[in-house]
Amino acid sequence: MRNYLFISTLLLCYSGFSQTPKFNLQDFYTDNTELSATVDSIYATLSTPKRVAQMIITSAGELGKPEAVVKQLAKKDAIGGVVFLKGSKQKHTESIAALNAISKQQNTIPLLFSMDAEPSLFGSRIKGAKDVGKTIDIKTEEQSDTIVNIINSELRAIGVHHNYAPVVDISPNNVAIKSRSYGDDKETVVRLANRFIQCTQESGIIATAKHFPGHGLVKGDTHKQSVYIDGPLQEVDNYTQLIKDGVLSIMIGHITIRDNEKYDTNGIPASCSKKIITGLLKEEMGFKGIIISDALNIMKAVTILDNAPLLSSKAGCDLVLMPQHEEQTINAIIAEMKTDAAYEKQVTESVKKILRLKVCAGLL
């Protein structure tokens, strides 16, 4: 009861932050003792299942889970956020309002709402929204700013906090990437992706660079089959400047690496490989932001694995995107935590990062 009353008071105290938040996204990477203390205070109020639930992102919209199912998950406090797939602006807005009402009524941590609002997918994610064209057609930073400002405005109007964009993959020739890429010139891709990220985050929306370690220079579509990087990781360096300049999240692709002595993933996709996520991205490249898996429920490159959501978390993902069974995933993570102290510590770090992101995004 004490924890319940504490978090009720905490949420009430922070309710005004939607207008004038004390922290913002630029604070996420800072050494701010007050911000850290705020996160620790919120974390302390949560039970272990509710902590782990912060890592789970379910889906909604026409291609997502039924609205009744998503609402029930929210009532059970079994998710930390929702990604909205295809749907109208009105429907998305109504769904987010309803889910926010549930969080408020139950005094639970607000949900993180996200969307694949990259330029080439924007029209399919928000039906009826202004056409912003294809990513491949963006040639200048000024053009990018105009397009990103339109996207940001639409996302804010709906209530979306987190944009799974931009694509940092090189080459419009991959069957899954096509016009979603900025092109086949590395310097151009990095420059325009970085501009997209900066404009997005300065507007108070979290940006996401994807699909690490690179989906452009491969053959195949991870939605349909296993896809392989054979030999060197040619697109990894695309992320170096983006990390240096403060991108807040990176999405890991379901790409298997082979014929590479150092980074071979032994037949599993990068999204489930500790060697790639923890070893390469976190330790070698120094990324300290939010790591999110690509979708885990429909993409054939990963659904062939047993318990891929747990594997992605153990590999180092902070957010587990669209597991087939949210509550089963929570239970699997908790069970693993009981037998692995190092993993328990890792989950604690993930949850605190997520809470920190929510505070900086103005949710708390």
Task: Report on the architecture of this protein.
- Helices cover 45% and strands 10% of the residues.
- The chain is of the alpha/beta class and 364 residues long.
- It has a single domain (53-360), classed as TIM Barrel (Alpha-Beta Barrel).
- Helix 4 (67-75) links the parallel strand 1 and strand 2 (81-84).
Strand order of the largest sheet: 4-3-2-1-10
The count of β-strands is: 10
Order of helices and strands: HHHEHEHEHHEHEEHEEHEHHEHH
**Low-pLDDT ranges:** 1-18
Molecular shape: globular
Major beta sheet, specifics? 5 strands, parallel
Helix content: 40-55%
Oligomer: single chain
Question: What gyration radius follows from the Cα positions, in whole Å?
Answer: 19 Å
Strand % is 5-15%
Termini separation (Å)? 21 Å
Q: How many separate domains make up the residues?
A: 1
CATH topology: TIM Barrel
Q: Class, according to the CATH hierarchy?
A: Alpha Beta
- The appropriate CATH architecture is Alpha-Beta Barrel
- Mean pLDDT score, rounded? 91
Question: Can you tag this structure with a few keywords?
Answer:
3-stranded parallel sheet; TIM Barrel; 14 helices; 364 residues; alpha/beta; 5-stranded parallel sheet; globular; 10% strand
Short structural description:
With 364 residues, the chain is an alpha/beta fold. The strands form three sheets. It has a five-stranded parallel β-sheet with strand order 4-3-2-1-10. Strand 2, helix 5 and strand 3 form a beta-alpha-beta unit.
